[in-house]
Design a protein that fits this description.
By secondary structure, the protein is an all-beta fold. Helix content is 0%, strand content 56%. The radius of gyration is 14 Å and the shape is elongated.
Length: 121
Amino acid sequence: QVQLVESGGGLVQPGGSLRLSCAASGTIVRIGDMGWYRQAPGKQRELVATITSGGATNYVDSVKGRFAISRDNAKNTVYLQMNSLKPEDTAVYYCVAAIVRPGNSYASHYWGQGTQVTVSS
């Protein structure tokens, strides 16, 4: 069994910061790419940022220069530092990880339960 548990969401004023964390637990051989998606009310889920096992990162244009994704491979954890938050960043944020389990040669994608981020004055 594999679980991804997120934390760090909440209510913040415009211009503020939040740091999301997502820890993977269970029987894991290897974790490949990790990332964050978000879904705002009435909108499709969109990719926010990704990070490879080697640390290469990619961001959606709307968060470049404001968000930073990082990971701690020893802790099986991915982070999303969000600065200069805007009301349009309001959404449920989900982490995702490509995980290889014992006995498998391929990775499967696992998702966190989601954490609410609300940016409002």
